[in-house]
Design goal:
Number of helices: 9
CATH topology of the largest domain: Rossmann fold
Strand order of the largest sheet: 3-2-1-4-5-6-7
Number of strands: 14
CATH superfamily of the largest domain: Formyl transferase, N-terminal domain
Radius of gyration: 23 Å
Shape: elongated
CATH architecture of the largest domain: 3-Layer(aba) Sandwich
CATH class of the largest domain: Alpha Beta
Structural class: alpha+beta
Order of helices and strands: EHEHEHEHEHEEHHEEHEEEEHE
Helix content: 10-25%
Mean pLDDT: 94
Largest sheet: 7 strands, mixed
């Protein structure tokens, strides 16, 4: 924002978000010329031993003296009354985790605007960052759009693009997108304040969906191509993690979390024609057959054990003959 003229009328905002994706843009707004009248975030979850997990959004707001609200259900009448009393010009939303109903969306003067971790209309839904990697996208980004009752369908008011790294995981990409969203957020809010925002309708012919990922989606399908397996492994980190069941002769099945793979050059294993899922010890490296070639496992975590590199894994779990990765339990 350096070099820009001060706004004659900064906006009054309400921020709604939970988790690390919301932190950088919310911090930037809290430090901006705009007024943050309140922050809504999800109630803290209770872990083992009744220990409450820290909510970084709440902590950040409390440190700055901003009122924090943590409703179990944000659309309840008493919460709507509270939001009306804040008299906000706009709601800024990022990974909030609750559906916002039309009555709530109608409260702010300028509307409610969401930060979404993909280039809409591609990957509408709860898991856009994971799907961007899972589906092999080379390019992704963050879209800011005005929220409508339909899922992620509102007019777009700004985008930022970035390439996806060849080895980037969902967790790594999410943190990077969160930082990239900072200048986008400040720019859009400023345009809303001076009435210069441009609203672009989404092209419905380009819509793809990115629904919430279930735990079972982590199971690796070794009949996919090397690139598809690699994308799947990276997309499932940090959750639900890509996994497979190792079957070895004379040994009980071993569930393994596959953390990193890389395609083996074709000339190295071109003569090894085996069914998909076959795992072999190739020069001290665990290699698995896919639909169109072989991948080497670079990082792996056996069930109940620490993560190790592929060579160390073979030292602890030697393959005297070819094993096989399956999804059978």
């Amino acid at each position: 924002m350096s070099g820009l003229q001060p706004l004659s009328t900064p906006l009054k905002l309400v921020l709604m978000g939970t988790g690390e994706f919301a932190l950088p843009p919310f911090r930037a707004l809290l430090e901006s010329e705009h007024t943050v009248a309140g922050v809504l975030t999800q109630p803290e979850k209770t872990g083992r031993g009744h220990h409450q997990h820290v909510n970084p959004i709440k902590e950040m707001a409390v440190q700055r003296g901003v009122p924090v609200f943590q409703p179990e259900r944000v659309n309840r009448p008493e919460i709507l009354d509270t939001l009306r009393s804040l008299q906000a010009d706009a709601f800024i939303v990022a990974a909030y985790g609750q559906i916002l109903k039309p009555e709530l969306l109608a409260i702010p003067r300028l509307g409610a605007f969401n930060l979404h971790g993909s280039l809409l209309p591609r990957h509408r839904g709860a898991a856009p960052v994971q799907y961007s990697i899972w589906k092999g996208d080379r390019l992704t980004g963050v879209t800011m759009f005005q929220i409508e009752p339909a899922l992620d369908s509102g007019p777009m008011v700004g985008k930022v693009e970035t390439s996806i790294g060849d080895a980037e995981t969902s967790g790594e990409l999410m943190l990077r997108l969160a930082e990239l969203s900072v200048p986008l957020t400040l720019q859009v809010v400023r345009k809303l304040a001076d009435d210069t925002a441009v609203f672009e309708t989404q092209d419905t012919s380009l819509v793809t969906l990115a629904p919430k990922i279930p735990r079972e989606a982590g199971r690796i399908d070794w009949t996919k191509t090397c690139r598809e397996v690699d994308c799947h492994v990276r997309a499932m980190q940090p959750w639900p993690k890509a996994s497979s069941l190792l079957q070895r002769a004379g040994q009980p099945p071993l569930r393994c979390i596959i953390q990193q793979v890389v395609q083996v050059p074709e000339e190295q294993l071109s003569q090894q024609d085996q069914p998909s899922g076959t795992v072999i010890d190739f020069q001290g490296r665990p290699c698995v057959r896919t639909d169109d070639g072989w991948v080497e496992i670079l990082r792996i975590q056996p069930d109940g054990r620490k993560s190790v590199d592929g060579r160390s894994f073979l030292n602890g779990y030697p393959l005297t003959s070819a094993g096989h990765f399956t999804n059978e339990t």
